């Protein structure tokens, strides 16, 4: 394991991806910054993080034994790693909101961006970007966002938290490489936000409907059941809660 610490960078994922092009990096190379200026979320959404307050880092995992159709299990492993560490820190009402936001009650405290390199039906490596709201207390114009400090009422040591997260990530990837897929999926579904709870949804086409999340498809899409349309699949950004 190698940790590269940067004072400031546009995006840890982008930096690590470029670094990996020019050199052979060891498994679990980590890039962490105190000031991520142009963080990225799913589908190139922006991720703003107040400098020196939060954990913004990326991890390269290149010793994978997975096929391309097993990519969803990477998401399960990463989401569960963060979830389990936050459980230890006694963050209440924890959930994973599909695909990989970590929630406390109805507020987002962590975002994840996973970028896989694929060839010949295999996943060569995965770059995992994690933005965890730790000591930031103000989130202008964001109602459904919080931080560990806001929830617990005190500041946390960023370095200690980083080490805890890396240890749990390694453990979850060990399970992944042992092909314990059912275990990972069952654990993920057990803490999936609003699973089996009737909820109002809105599609990217503006259609609203009452349905309930029943699982995750083989390709990682969300499975939602409604009275009128039965079970439908939705990709990222194709559906949201109302």
TrEMBL record:
Q: Where's the BPL/LPL catalytic domain?
A: 1-177
PROSITE patterns reported in the protein's UniProt record: BPL_LPL_CATALYTIC (PS51733)
- State whether keyword Ligase applies: yes
Q: Which domain of life is it from?
A: Bacteria
According to its UniProt record, the EC number is: 6.3.4.15
Q: Is Ligase among the key words of this record? A: yes
Q: Name one GO molecular function term.
A: biotin--[biotin carboxyl-carrier protein] ligase activity
The broad enzyme category this protein falls into is ligase
Q: Which InterPro entries match?
A: aa-tRNA-synth_II/BPL/LPL, Biotin_CoA_COase_ligase, BPL_LPL_catalytic
Pfam families, per database record:
BPL_LplA_LipB
Keywords, alphabetical: Ligase
Indicate what this protein is called per its UniProt record: Biotin--[acetyl-CoA-carboxylase] ligase
């Amino acid at each position: 394991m190698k940790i590269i610490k940067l004072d400031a960078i546009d995006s840890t994922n982008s930096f690590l991806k470029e670094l990996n092009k020019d050199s052979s990096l060891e498994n679990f190379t980590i890039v962490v910054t105190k000031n991520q200026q142009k963080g990225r979320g799913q589908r190139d959404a922006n991720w703003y993080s107040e400098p020196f307050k939060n954990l913004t880092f990326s991890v390269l995992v290149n010793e994978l034994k997975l096929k391309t159709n097993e990519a969803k299990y990477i998401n399960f492993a990463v989401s569960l790693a963060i979830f389990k560490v936050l459980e230890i820190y006694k963050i209440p009402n924890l959930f994973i909101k599909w695909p990989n936001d970590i929630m406390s009650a109805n507020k987002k405290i962590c975002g994840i961006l996973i970028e896989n390199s694929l060839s010949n039906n295999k996943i060569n490596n995965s770059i995992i970007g994690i933005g965890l709201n730790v000591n930031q207390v103000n989130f202008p114009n964001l109602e459904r966002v919080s931080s560990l400090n806001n929830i617990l009422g005190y500041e946390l040591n960023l370095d200690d938290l980083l080490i805890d997260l890396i240890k749990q990530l390694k453990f979850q990837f060990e399970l992944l490489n042992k092909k314990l897929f059912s275990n990972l999926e069952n654990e993920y579904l057990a803490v999936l936000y609003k699973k089996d709870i009737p909820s109002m949804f809105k599609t990217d086409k503006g259609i609203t409907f009452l349905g309930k999340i029943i699982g995750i498809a083989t390709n990682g899409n969300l499975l939602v059941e409604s009275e009128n349309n039965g079970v439908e699949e939705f990709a990222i950004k194709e559906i949201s809660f109302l």
